[in-house]
Amino acid sequence: MFLTIATRSAGPDVPATDLGFLLHKNPARPQSVEVAGGVAHVLYPEATVERCTAAVLLEVDPIALVRSGRGKGKAAEGFTLGQYVSDRPYAASSLLAVALGKLFRTAMNGRCDARPELATRPIPLEIHIPALPCNGGTALAARFFGPLGWTVDARPVPLDPEIPEWGDSRYVDLRLTGNLRLADALNHLYVLLPVLDDAKHYWVDTDEVEKLIRAGEGWLATHPDKQQISHRYLAHRRNLTDSALDRLTEADGDLTEDEPLTEVGDDTQPIPLVVQRRQAVLDVLREIGGHRVGDLGCGEGVLVSELLKDGRYDQVVATDVSSRALGFAERRLQVAQMSDRQRERLRLFQSSVTYADARLAGLDAAVLMEVVEHVDPPRLPALAQAVFGAARPGAVVVTTPNSEYNVRFEKLAAGAFRHPDHRFEWTRAEFQEWALAVCRSYGYSVEFRAVGPDDPEVGPPTQLAVFRRKEAV
Fold it and tell me: Which end of the chain is more exposed for a tag (fewer CB within 10 A), N or C?
């Protein structure tokens, strides 16, 4: 079982061998790790300034696989040998996906401690999988990978090249090229390899929902085939699929978040609004500086996950009024598996933004990302008092929908809110009026910014305000 990941130099100061930093695997030293039913090796067939290729070779022992009960299934009665004769040692499948997760776990999480800036930017990537079982053919491979920014070259593998009349096998020779973050590319493979094969070598239970949500963060919720992908990944178990789809909807908030919005004049792969908004908040927090930040109304911890990847933050405080959401966040963040040092950086607890909480004192910056519109209007003064009056962080970042932009969402009925739990949605003037009143009452200044394409008539889809405490300016 074989897979290669290649990149080329992106400029005079960006050697291709930076791939070794991103993968946390030294190009000069082959490495091996034991996985279910075999051994996975990482080696570099080429490692030059101009081009670098990492190869994953998975050697599967079919006897060990059967004895461990992790084969593709029991053989028919009377054909015991059939348990040992399968394509599992040769074709990319869930075995390879698990090996990728074990070999490149840190890279999949978007961390690169030696060169943190590398993990945040797209790089030119070429991925080659010579034998991928594809239950649906080449068209399905293109359908699943294409919307993620890949150029897909999927070619059927003939049953026998010497006897063309036999036709094609169910395997494809897959090549993917594109400019993506390496973490995103690895997560695409982790999810879609077993999805295209439509089989897994292990029992699928509720833990698989967590794995899917985690690996699909930032792309699966907006994928046009997310239902089919989820259904296959979860072994066609309807209850697990429904749970995953509900989680994906909750994690990404508004019903319109799957709209592929790009800046005006931008001809690159469309970027969903939820991703643009999260990146805008992260950019503002880096601009503000500080070492102790809080995500108030953190939901399932999507933003918290990004904050924990950034070593500049000594402590990340995450709160939500929903204990259910905090449970999901704890599993998403893998708190139980965190090192002691990492766990010390995170404070995750239940709290309401409409009640003063002494545990929130001393924050350098706090974030209310798509939170205020979920609060009943009569409770907004209590929110302002709790956040700006009692907690008084050095800065507060608030994002909320711009209701004027709703007419641009084709899927949204006239007069409807973007999410059924929204209590209101402000126009730009209404948001600015509320923000300026908060500043007068609690001693802050405010700056307004646009998130998403700034329509000349109705403004941006998301409006963002950066509050700074005056004595901290």
Answer: C
